[in-house]
Design goal:
26% of the residues lie in helices and 37% in strands. With 151 residues, it is an alpha+beta fold. It has a seven-stranded antiparallel sheet. It is globular and about 45 Å long.
Length: 151
């Protein structure tokens, strides 16, 4: 087995200030507009939370890591039976917009990890597109988008 770790990366520029994007990430009521169907609480350092997704059965346990208001959010969760770390960084721009960068790491390179890399790269790109559509235009792109996955 190769000891190299695989890393998912995705980024997008959103025409909103960092504070508005930060709140859309840490506040479960806002996150239900573009990502999850349920969140057990606000993301705060050290908290253990539960997220539910409309297209998947079961709970997704989240362990919140570092929170830097209007700048960074990190958390750990289970991926393919292994814990990975997600870092969301907010980079304010002079024009009032914000670049959102997501990195997920912690998966050792093997066949299951390569499938994870492809799926989660797609997933985080979708997360960013859905967040941008909701924050900029009030459109919920995720609603009904994954009904086909339920069978």
């Amino acid at each position: 087995m190769n000891s190299a770790q695989l890393t998912v990366k995705a980024a997008i520029q959103i025409q909103k200030p960092a504070h508005e994007i930060f709140e859309a990430v840490v506040n479960p009521e806002k996150m239900t507009k573009y990502f999850i169907s349920y969140g057990s609480g606000r993301m705060e350092e050290g908290k253990h939370l539960i997220w539910r997704f409309p297209e998947f059965d079961g709970d997704a346990p989240i362990r919140v890591g570092e929170i830097i208001t209007d700048s960074a959010v990190s958390f750990c969760w289970d991926a393919e039976g292994r814990e990975t770390k997600v870092d969301i960084r907010l980079e304010p721009r002079a024009d009032g917009s914000t670049v959102v960068r997501i990195t997920e790491s912690g998966m050792e390179s093997d066949e299951a990890a390569i499938r994870w890399l492809v799926a989660n790269t797609e997933g985080w790109a979708n997360f960013l597109a859905c967040m941008k559509a909701w924050l900029e235009y009030g459109v919920q792109l995720r609603k009904g988008a994954f009904d086909f996955m339920r069978g």
